[in-house]
Design a protein that fits this description.
With 212 residues, this protein is an alpha/beta fold. It has one domain: P-loop containing nucleotide triphosphate hydrolases (Rossmann fold, 3-Layer(aba) Sandwich), CATH 3.40.50. The protein has 7 helices and 5 strands, in the order E-H-E-H-H-E-H-H-E-H-E-H. Strands 2-3-1-4-5 form a 5-stranded parallel beta sheet, with helices on both faces. Helix 6 links the parallel strand 4 and strand 5. Helix 1 crosses helix 7 and helix 4 packs across helix 6. The radius of gyration is 17 Å and the shape is globular. The protein starts with 7 loop residues before the first strand and ends with a helix.
Length: 212
């Protein structure tokens, strides 16, 4: 750790039901078992303010305008970055987040049709310019998500047309940022995916100067 200037930020992305949350938690378990300092957060949420915003954003039946939705997500993210992420990175922790700024592009730009350039500016403001060092996109055919449990929150119950736009948005991002975003097959067995992620993270951290 002596030669490491700051921690790293690893994000997990994907459509609802892709299994990204399961894989994010599995990675944190592995990091803790390896004795590495880490922090696990989720979006929206991760702070008292963020969790209150999350309750509004995900409440079924609540009519939220797309612009309002975007600003609420960004507000929760801004609080998370300031209160949790930046201090943890300064402490050289490995931060694992279940969703980050890529979700805004996929869900609000591609899914809702909001202007990409303007949202990108707002996103940079909310994150203080912070970007993930490594992102795992757990890709899944949206028809498969229905087999993985009953949809409950406001975002999950959106129709398949919306979720397909979101999925294609994620894949478009992955095509633009091949070095950072690693696309994984969400239909693979959970343990197999966990192994793939662990191997990639292990190599990534070794290259960053971490001792494993």
């Amino acid at each position: 750790m002596a030669g490491i200037k700051r921690g790293v930020l690893i994000s997990f992305e994907g459509v609802e039901g892709s299994g990204k949350s399961t894989q994010a938690r599995a990675l944190v378990d592995w990091l803790e078992a390896a004795g590495l300092p880490c922090l696990f957060v989720r979006e929206p949420g991760g702070t008292p303010v963020g969790e209150m915003i999350r309750e509004i954003l995900l409440r079924p039946g609540l009519a939220v305008h797309p612009r309002t939705e975007t600003l609420l997500f960004l507000a929760a993210r801004s609080q998370l970055v300031a209160e949790m992420l930046l201090p943890a990175l300064r402490d050289r922790k490995i931060v694992v987040t279940d969703r980050f700024a890529d979700s805004t592009f996929a869900y609000q730009v591609c899914g809702r049709g909001l202007p990409p350039r303007r949202i990108a500016i707002f996103n940079r403001f909310a994150t203080s310019g912070l970007n993930p060092d490594l992102t795992f996109l757990v890709d899944l055919d949206i028809r498969k998500r229905h087999e993985r449990g009953k949809s409950q929150d406001r975002m999950e119950i959106e129709n398949d047309t919306y979720h397909e736009l979101v999925r294609q948005g994620f894949l478009k991002l992955a095509g633009r940022a091949r070095k950072r975003i690693k696309v994984l097959d969400g239909e693979k067995p959970v343990a197999e995916l966990t192994g793939e992620i662990t191997d990639q993270v292990k190599n990534f951290l070794l290259n960053k100067g971490y001792k494993l």
